[in-house]
Amino acid sequence: MDCMPTQDQIREALRAVIDPELRKDIVELEMVRSIDVHPTGVVDVMVSLTTPGCPIRSHFQTGVANAVKALDGVTGVNVSFDVLSDEEKGNLQRKLGRGGPLPSGALAQVKNVICVGSGKGGVGKSSVTANLAAALTAEGKQVGVLDADVWGYSQPRMLGLGAQRPKVNEQRRIVPPEAGDGIKVMSIGFFIEEDAAVVWRGPMLHKALQQFLEDVDWGALDYLLVDLPPGTGDVSMTLAQLLPDARFLLVTTPQPVAQKVARRSAEMATKVRLEIAGVVENMSGFVAPDGERYALFGDGGGQLLADELGVPLLGKVPLTMPLREQADAGTPLVAADPDDPAAQAVRDVAKGLIALTPVALPVMQSEPEPAGLNVIPPRPVGMSLPMA
To answer: Please, what's the b/e burial string for 122-158 (b: 16 or more CB within 10 A of its CB; e: otherwise)?
Structure first.
């Protein structure tokens, strides 16, 4: 029989097991509670979870078993689980620099989070978000949209969902309504009277956004697009805190004023350590029905911003009449008229974004193995949103 691996060798092998939400390995996260090596070649590993009913327990069970089985001399692997104490959770929070609670699996199957921001209003950021969601879906991706523009929410209308009320599943998670070809959408607009004003201060916004991220059953997504409000205030800071691995997509118009304001959003993203994925120049000229193009807002601002930041210009989206009409009609132009110049430009943005965001998430197990713990439905966190 081959020599038995040491505990240090096993611990090193377990660095291949990544927490898909925290994006760090379980050794670095100090989730490996114990390792026991038996003379028969059987290895017992105990992993500490953040919550007893962790939805991704089976992911860890499979990852640990595969990593240890690959070592010479191992004849079998037993994986068991316990739960981090409150003190251990607090230590882990401090280690990760998180102000809020540790995740409990709600975003575990979301591969990429893209925050779409602009710095200023009126540059078409929300219409870019809605059409980008449709374009990514047309490329075969599973997509969700979080309307984080709490005061100026518009995604339900742009995606044709109106003010329907979301349902709650057996695990007491909010089920996001689906638009078009399965785009999952969450917005404060689903919980208040249609077109009502939202008059909230920062702490309420923080709790609502936290609930939209952690208490919504997003499921498996390739992209979660977050439609940010204008500016660099509470919402952007909260999302940077809750989503430390998100990427920032800047939307600007060609004119220098918009480009300079968008630069401030880039500075905010840099300060809170969010990676900037690229720039989209929206309203890049007006294309008339006869095909003639007019540079209403100047030219070149998007490229200047991208060059200044050292990131790619992912696309230049012209302003067309169907782009506005389809936004009001509730069907993204990309889906309604894919041959329109604006729709083609957004499709190019989607392809560029896909090229920048290769799959980094470990493959999740399709069939869960027998549970080592009784599965307890997660308790809702954050504030209670009005459901009536």
So the answer is: ebbbbbbbbbbbbbbbbeebbbbbbbbbbeebbbbbb
